[in-house]
Write a structure and sequence with these properties.
Nucleotidyltransferase, domain 5; two-stranded antiparallel sheet; 7 helices
Length: about 250
């Protein structure tokens, strides 16, 4: 029987892409573990979003190092198999989204990771971790790109609420004041002129008053669990805030 661990990924990991020479004999074994993790991370375990997305990128050429990291996730699941998402009863209806990014944490490409978490009246309904498509040149740009991803999900959820005839207030929270400033400022300057037009989606929707954008302290940003490995205290605290508990 495996010994449980308290976090799905080692905080100090230095995992790189592998080579054909280092690939394990049975890549399908690694791929089956990741496939199972994807099922859990997609359905009911937002605390696995980052780790699963990170390890998925090594599916084509997994090494013993990657396999060890994948087995760690299983050990984490062994110790947290009773964790469930709790949905509270509420008379008021409001939609909140949290967006975050980790700057240049991919050791091979130096790309950042975007993450978001959405809740309805305090109950988590949607989450995602995704490596950004291009290299961000600053933390502000990385966070702004993460806001764009969250904004698109916001509009999808808003349309779903409209179809259900459920009016609701919508807010997105971000822990980077620079990204919030860029989103609220229609003027092009040295900080924004090189940012791809596609990422200005947030600004466009703010101008249309589709949702509101607010600052949140980093330690209260629920999306932090979707963008990087965390130490046990921070991981446990955010998992609790996600209402993912026994």
């Amino acid at each position: 029987m495996s010994h449980p661990v308290s976090t799905p990924m080692d905080l100090n990991h230095r995992i790189h892409s592998g080579t054909i020479e280092d690939r394990i004999v049975e890549p399908s074994y690694y791929q089956s573990i990741i496939g199972s993790n994807i099922y859990a991370a997609t359905g009911s375990r937002p605390d696995l979003a980052y780790t699963t997305t990170f390890l998925l990128q090594f599916n084509n050429c997994p090494t013993s190092e990657h396999l060890q990291a994948a087995r760690r996730v299983l050990r984490y699941l062994q110790g947290t198999k009773d964790q469930v998402l709790l949905f509270s009863k509420s008379k008021s209806l409001y939609l909140e989204g949290y967006a975050d990014a980790s700057y240049a944490n991919d050791l091979d490409t130096r790309r950042s990771v975007s993450g978001y978490v959405f809740s309805v009246s305090g109950s988590i309904i949607s989450w995602r971790s995704k490596k950004q498509k291009s290299v961000a040149t600053s933390t502000t740009e990385a966070e702004y790109m993460a806001l764009s991803l969250a904004s698109r999900q916001t509009m999808w959820l808003k349309r779903a609420f409209i179809d259900l005839r459920l009016p609701t207030k919508i807010a997105i929270y971000c822990d980077n004041t620079g990204a919030i400033e860029v989103a609220n400022n229609p003027k092009i300057n040295e900080r924004t002129k090189h940012i791809d037009v596609a990422y200005h989606y947030t600004r466009e929707k703010l101008e249309e008053h589709q949702f509101e954008l607010f600052y949140v302290a980093s330690d209260q940003n629920l999306a932090d669990i979707c963008i990087k490995a965390l130490a046990k205290p921070a991981h446990d605290r955010l998992r609790g805030l996600l209402a993912c508990r026994q």
